[in-house]
Amino acid sequence: MDEELQARQCHLLDLPWEDVLVPHILCYLPLQHLVSLQRVSRQFHSLIQVYLNNCRTFGLSLGGQYIPKEAFCSMLKDNKVLQHLALQSCSDWVTDKELLPVIGQNQHLQRVNLSGCASLTRHSLVAVSLSCLHLQHLGLAHCEWVDSLSLRSLADHCGVLHSIDLTACRQLKDDAICYLAKKCLKLKSLSLAVNANITDESVEEVAKNCRDLERLDLTGCLRVRNQSIRTLAEYCPKLQSLMVNHCHNVTESSLEPLRKRNVVIDVEPPLQRALVLLQDVLGFAPFINLQI
């Protein structure tokens, strides 16, 4: 009887790896559990490697948790099918040395997020541009190492780019943004926020070339004025969201036509701002009949 019962027992590793364990179980485990499982036995180590070698998303699926350097290097060394790579959780330690091999062997990447990775250099962005010709979404927020040369390389090779976040990439000036706009005509989302170098020249070039633009973030672009916002309203009929907070030279005269098109703008109309101030002072908002 005991022998018959023992024969009936099914162990986890007896289940089909690629048909059951990888797609239906391992994909729900956090990174710490996967790392721990690798240490249980040689079989578990082999199983985890099978999963990681076929993983198409790294970073996003891990819930934003911290990813140790050793785990990153060992887990992705043989993966050649990545489509989404998000490294915000690696921003404390990731350098070109760790990133370049991963980029070089994954030419099908469509989404890459390097936001906050301060220790990288322009070589990483050049590598992305040369290897990831199908790239659609790129996050480079607070990557101050991004310069004109590397952005031009990206524009030359990644013409199908749909969105790019260049928030606080303070080395970039109008010439680089204009070049990007002329090459990446399919852009739908662009952030140039927190960059005092950006002027009307950049915004107008984006407006005239990227007709499918839906979202533009100009927060803190102090040199942007009404002229380019009017051009944006004229050339970008699909615009849905515009962020111009702290753009002190952008006034209601240029924003009003966009409001009439129901474009979401992060700056309230002057009258509404005045009512808020009155409420703060008086403790209530006076009723104002706006009907004529």
UniProtKB/TrEMBL annotation:
Domain F-box: 12-49
Keyword Repeat: yes
Residue ranges annotated for the F-box/LRR-repeat protein 15-like leucin rich repeat domain, each copy included: 73-256
Location in the cell: Cytoplasm
GO biological process, one term: SCF-dependent proteasomal ubiquitin-dependent protein catabolic process
Domain of life: Eukaryota
Pfam families linked: DUF7885, F-box
Gene3D superfamilies reported in the protein's UniProt record: Ribonuclease Inhibitor
Keyword list, A-Z: Cytoplasm, Leucine-rich repeat, Repeat, Ubl conjugation pathway
InterPro entries assigned: F-box-like_dom_sf, F-box_dom, FBXL15_LRR, Leu-rich_rpt_Cys-con_subtyp, LRR_dom_sf
Pathway field: Protein modification; protein ubiquitination
GO terms for cellular component: cytoplasm; SCF ubiquitin ligase complex
Keyword Iron-sulfur found: no
Family, similarity comment: Belongs to the FBXL15 family.
Function field: Substrate recognition component of a SCF (SKP1-CUL1-F-box protein) E3 ubiquitin-protein ligase complex which mediates the ubiquitination and subsequent proteasomal degradation of target proteins. Acts as a positive regulator of the BMP signaling pathway. Required for dorsal/ventral pattern formation.
Subunit structure: Part of the SCF (SKP1-CUL1-F-box) E3 ubiquitin-protein ligase complex SCF(FBXL15).
Protein name per UniProt: F-box/LRR-repeat protein 15
Protein species of origin: Gouania willdenowi (Blunt-snouted clingfish)
